[in-house]
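Readers outside the structure-tokenisation community will struggle with the description of the input data as it stands. What matters is that the chain and its backbone geometry are given together, residue for residue. For illustration, here is how one protein appears when written out as sequence plus structure tokens:

…
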Amino acid sequence: MAREQLTDVEWEFIRPYLPIGSYGPYPERLRQQFEGVIWRFRTGAQWRETPEGFGAWSTVHNRFRQWRDAGIFEALLEGLIAEAAKRSEVDDGTAVRVNGLLVEMWRVFEDFVTSALAEAFRPHGGRSELQDRRHHLDHGRRVLLKPDLVRYVLDSGGKEVPAAVVDSKYKISANSADLYQMLAYCTALGLDRGHLVYAEGSAEPYRHLVHGAAIGITQHAIDLTLPPARLPSTVERVAGSILRNDEGR
């Protein structure tokens, strides 16, 4: 039996944002399917591992894609931010909380960003791996790294090698922990450049140059306050900036 992921209060806040079409889902299944999405991002599991109590994994996944493409999560995030501001629950400007729910919703933002970037990279060749688990920080392979997105290309010898690493953060700006984490990714992957994508901030990328490491970490922003129809072009802009940055090495 699947464990409930939301309190009744949290669900009552979310429910009005989810459309109910002519052919479903039935209202009593809507909460189960949404909680299935929350479970997936809370645990980091694969979609196929979704417990049956949330419904068929393929249905939960398809529902997530429909909601994502319709801009539902962006609208919900905006609503959560407004509610947090109303309750004065904004802390130092880098994270927002509403009954703990927004702590989980940042995972949905990360998936939206990385999936959209992977699609934007596709016409340029190479292959994008989301939540790449094949890399470790140490030779003993005890410290697993899991960057949100690694883009691979073929080198001159036909071997697949990392070309870009991206991590998305539902925050306004970078903090030291984000930069340290990206520095670890770049070091383990043998890259001299890494990319952090935030939910808000300057439209112009900002590059942090690491002392003594010859590594640059570029900070990008995707403004969630934009209408959903404009978000794809914003993602395209960030993808283009990443490609130009890495191709210019």
Remarks:
- Residues 89-99 have pLDDT under 50 and may be disordered.
- Strands lie at 127-130, 135-136, 144-145, 149-154, 160-169, 193-198, 206-210, 215-221.
- The first helix runs from residue 8 to 14.
